[in-house]
């Protein structure tokens, strides 16, 4: 595991960018995001009540929490066709972000999207009590 911390504590958020690509910093998380991509998209669409059925997501940072497995907290930049930024107030770059929580327990083969929080800005810190996706 590339981003470990004391059991129960949440690690410092790590950037994901050209200098810190996810495939290099945490290939396991990259695999999990790919595995859950359609669930993330569906949960986002339901939570935001948008009509665009094809938003795309780009991970920009993540943090880890070691529990009986690993909780990954991931900030995603959201791109929607025709979106004007009207739902996202102040702070950041005028783009919309969402935060997700993924629970991963490799010894039981458990991977689950366990939280999503929408209409975030670039500067919003991770929320640890995110609504469970419906």
From TrEMBL:
<feature type="region of interest" description="Disordered">
    <location>
        <begin position="1"/>
        <end position="22"/>
    </location>
</feature>
<dbReference type="InterPro" id="IPR046350">
    <property type="entry name" value="Cystatin_sf"/>
</dbReference>
<dbReference type="InterPro" id="IPR000010">
    <property type="entry name" value="Cystatin_dom"/>
</dbReference>
<protein>
    <recommendedName>
        <fullName>Cystatin domain-containing protein</fullName>
    </recommendedName>
</protein>
<dbReference type="GO" id="GO:0004869">
    <property type="term" value="F:cysteine-type endopeptidase inhibitor activity"/>
</dbReference>
């Amino acid at each position: 595991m590339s981003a470990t911390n004391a059991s129960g504590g949440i690690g410092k958020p790590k950037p994901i960018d050209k200098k810190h690509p996810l495939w290099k910093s945490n290939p396991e998380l990259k695999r999990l995001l790919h595995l859950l991509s359609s669930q993330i998209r569906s949960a986002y669409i339901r939570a935001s009540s948008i009509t665009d059925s094809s938003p795309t997501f780009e991970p920009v940072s993540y943090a880890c929490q070691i529990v009986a497995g690993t909780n990954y907290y991931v900030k995603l930049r959201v791109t929607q066709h025709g979106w004007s930024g009207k739902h996202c107030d102040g702070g950041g770059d005028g783009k919309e972000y969402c935060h997700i929580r993924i629970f991963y327990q490799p010894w039981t083969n458990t991977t689950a999207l366990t939280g999503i929080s929408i209409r975030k800005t670039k500067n919003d810190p991770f929320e640890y009590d995110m609504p469970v996706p419906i």
